[in-house]
Write a structure and sequence with these properties.
Blueprint lengths: L5 E4 L5 E4 L2 H8 E11 L5 E12 L4 E6 L4 E10 L5 E12 L6 E12 L4 E4 L4 E3 L5 E12 H4 L17
Antiparallel strand pairs: 1-2, 3-4, 3-11, 5-6, 6-7, 7-8, 9-11, 10-11
Length: about 170
């Protein structure tokens, strides 16, 4: 049997809600807002996507971006410190085909950033990409980590995606 929540009747007949196990999970949950963008050399955004995920401290949120000739994975791992600051570890992995299309090149990058809750940071998992016409494009991830309880007090937006039990 799993207890979701309970009400306790008091002597005057009123009901008081007791904390549920989900309340404890929400208290430690972190909301990760991600905006991924591809930017042209003239600083115009040619593609973007937004995502909101919920996780707990130390559990990765994964962003997967696939193109015709590139696969980019970003693993974002927020660690909530005792002083309520956050250490954000961002791991980027990139696979691109070789020039002869007989294999793949693999690149990776890792950054750790101390941030404050709600602060927006930019992570460049790919650096720059160059197409056949020698145009340079940047892929950037804007990341914002906020305690779930704070993020949902001020927002009446659509609820975020539920945590991924596989950590993906």
């Amino acid at each position: 049997m799993f207890l979701i929540g309970a009400y306790v009747a008091s002597a005057d007949g009123s009901e008081t809600k007791k904390a549920s196990p989900l309340d404890f999970l929400r208290a430690d949950a972190l909301q990760v807002n991600i905006v991924a963008r591809v930017i042209e050399p003239n600083h115009q955004t040619v593609w973007h996507m937004e995502s909101t995920k919920v996780t707990i401290s130390g559990r990765a949120v994964q962003v997967r971006l696939e193109g015709d000739n590139v696969l980019v994975l970003a693993h974002l791992i927020p660690y909530l410190n005792n002083d309520n600051t956050i250490l954000l570890v961002a791991l980027g992995q990139i696979w691109t085909p070789t020039a002869d299309n007989k294999g793949f090149k693999y690149y990776s990058t890792m950054k750790s950033l101390p941030i404050t809750p709600g602060e927006k940071v930019i992570f460049f998992p790919f650096g720059m990409a160059v197409d056949q016409k020698a145009n340079v494009y940047n892929l950037e991830l804007q990341i914002q980590v906020t305690p779930y309880s704070v993020a949902n007090k001020s927002s009446s937006a659509t609820p975020p995606d539920p945590p991924d039990p596989g950590g993906k």
